[in-house]
What does this fold into?
Amino acid sequence: MKTSRRKFLQWSGIGALGAVVFSGCGIPEKELLVQSPALIPEDLVSGLEAWYATSCGQCAVGEGIIVRVIEGRAIKIEGNPDHPISRGKSSAQCQAGLQALYNPQRLAAPMKLRGARGSGDYEEISWEAALSEVAELLKGQAPASVVLLTEPLRGSLGMVARTFMEAYGGQHLGYEALEQTTLRVALKQVFGADQLPDFDIDHADFVLSFGSDFLSSWLSPVRFNRGYGEFRQGGNTRGALVQVESRFSMTAANADRWVYVRPGREGEVALSVAYVLLAEHSERLDPAAANILTRGRGAAALEAFRPEAVAASTGVSEEQIKELAKALAEHQRPLVIGGGSAGAGTNGLSNLEAIYALDSLLGVLGKSGGVLFSPGAPVDGLPAAPKVGSFADWQALADRMRGGGVKVALVHGANPVYGLPADLGFGDALGRAEVVVSFSSFMDETTALADYILPDHVYLEAWGDDIPEPGPGYQVVTFQQPVVKPLVNTAAFADSLLGLARRIGGKVDQAFPKTWATMKDVLRDTARKLQAQGRGSVQAASFDAFWNTVLQRGGWWDVNRKGATPGLSPIRLPASPVEPQFAGPGAGGFYLVPFASHSLGDGKGANLPWLQATPDPVTTATWQTWVEINSRPAEAMGIKVGDELEISSPRGVLRALAYPHPGVSPEVVCIPTGQGHTHYGDYEVGPDLYRIRVARDRGANVLSVVAPSQVDGTGALAWASTRVSVRKTGAFYRLPRLEGPVFADFRAVEEHVPLSTA
Amino acid sequence: MVSTPRERKWQMVVDMDRCTGCQACVVACQVENNIPINSESHYQQGRAMQWIRIERYWEGEFPNVKARFIPFLCQQCNNAPCEPVCPVFATYHNNEGLNVQVYNRCVGTRFCANNCPYHARSFNFWEPVWPEAMRNQLNPDVTVRSRGIMEKCTFCIQRIRRAELDAKREGREVRDGDFQPACAQACPTSALVFGDSKDPASRVNEAAKSSRRFRLREELGTEPNVIYLSKVDPEARGAAGHA
It folds into this structure.
């Protein structure tokens, strides 16, 4: 065997490790040995790592994650490779969860208000005192005057909260930050299914998406991104994507073609596409669906939506509409998706109905590459679909509060004071309640009004389970286990509820089994019921084996228990366009298209520096609220990047920084959600010279200018039905963003291969 | 005698037709590698520290407008322009094809960053600081770099080392897929594929065979070990012919 000099040196270095580590300083060749830290373990301290599977609490989906823990500290989050939704993948939000756990602004102990409400003057009390005092409060109230406001709750926690409020007698209202009420209603009308279904992008070969920014923020972005990768390059043919949307979103940026449509006109485009399909490609359609949707009249029923008739109002050309219809007809596995801004005009429901009617017409329900439905929960009594209040419900609640009808408000996981349009005045209304009890882990706008704070664990410290929505088309229960010990003196929300129930006594206490002392007991009960089914991914003879395996795998699923495809619902397509209504200036104004921030979401992520510092994909902007405006009107108004703009609607005014770019329609301005907090994220980060607050008093909340209009027929907030005027204030702030002229020359290197050669 | 493992050369394939610009890789990298929190000033002064970043650029104007995303990371060049200019040998080439930075040799001349045609290097202009509680999250496998130090993507060398040690302990070769860098592991579209190019059966070798393959600024002769697969655009204007 021939030994090279390099090999010889490597071997001698490794062999010399034990004794000569400190004596070799004088030999020049020894220097070469440092060349590979990969092979020289002398300075390597490889700590023992443990990985725990649990559930992600950063967004509403219920993805499985695994967490790397070293010496009791959570170090890294990854997607759970076994989990049906994440399949080992994750998003920026999933990754940033550790900063929620190790957040300096966590509420560290139960507290009671000492000063005036809103003063932030609290005294620490014991858990015993906190639970007893709140229980006494609840005992002395008429149950009807108590409300429980939570995030949408599913799984065992949903069961506990529901049992508690049903036994006690008060109202339980779910707050969905990025409200999907209209989507739920539309899907129920068109498909007859009371759930958010899965869209099997993976296996589609043509996706037509209306307004749904599914690669960024819509429903289940990790799952859809995973599908998108396969859709593009996973199979033999490359899938094509067309995005019809009034904003140039991240999904539009990735689409093969982006079609600008005027806000609120998405339904007209969809019906026009349906008209062309019925008139020219009827052989491709499901005859039964076509029959029902048009009452047997075929294309004649949609005469009012001929492409030439809708081109002017929608801003989408006749040729474009015909091409879309042709593409849908010619592809083997087309799929139509709609949501986001398409469902957020006053006519949002009719828009989404029209959009999803295309799926019925094309007959893609329940098929590979189509719309897949998930079955109900595998365990009776476990809520699979959350109970969510619509915007109208929240308006009604605000009115009831103003009228003095609410004495005690219990709030968990929801921040309605920040997240409802300012015009609603929810903060003032909540202030009318006699006692507000917050179970939040962080100080936020709603918790700032609390009289008692009973802080919850962060999800990485807590037990729980979840039924992902949208599901993967079969039964899944994600299990959540604590991966670290609670860092501060917090208690799980479910444990607090169970503790309150015991102290209230009577029928509230009796509603819960005696064996349920904590959430872990509830969860073990759920696990027992799953074990008893004897099917699915985890099966075991003994409960201990089942319990351990289900925690190890991060959940339980049964790929054979698929959801049933619903039959056709007898909805009827409209005969004439449903006009969207707008509040605000007509001529001279812009359509306001708010959008969910890619990293901050509805604003929940705003207290995490990693997410604040994550560049927006389209603008590369960070840390601020910006206004997307087309470069041409911006030039005419003398607006440059970083100029402060005043955006006025009949309902309010906000100031934010301009970001003119060529991808936005000249009729539209777009503003992200997520900033404009007054209490959340109140701590500093950054180098000593440039320390900044993370979220408090940062940017503006776009909901402060959104008119509180409702989507007809659903009661959801029509957040894309405001028009605004734009004025330059003269102030300037350098917009923190990633892009810079220095990288501009790279554009030459990327090449685009036309489809024919790919 | 210690048995010598098979020769290794790490490579990455970036499929831009899968990449959606979602930033999962960017945050995953920040978390894994103890990269300082980028505050406003980092961005305002063009000093944001990202070992992997997503560049976006525009083509065309409304309504026929396109935004393109390219993930940029250290290209781990075979002929790395950053290496010969370092006066203190802080940046050098290791025998697994990695361009490595030795932090405690670096004196902060920034010659390497100046010479890097890919802007892959980040300089610590400020002492990195974290709120006390957040220091609990720092990855103990990765050094925290102080002010005045140059840093860049390492292909997550701490994960490479861990996988190699595990393999050695078990008396076997490192298997394809034993580990991935943080960016590739997070990437929801599987746009990033990482592996050993000397392993003929590795996924990265398979992916690199694509006809869409090219490397950034190949004309400079840097021979990057990051291979890009170009975006497919049926409607591309003036698309370069590509065999």
Summary: Chain B has one domain: 10-229. The domain at 10-229 of chain B is CATH 3.30.70.20 (Alpha-Beta Plaits).
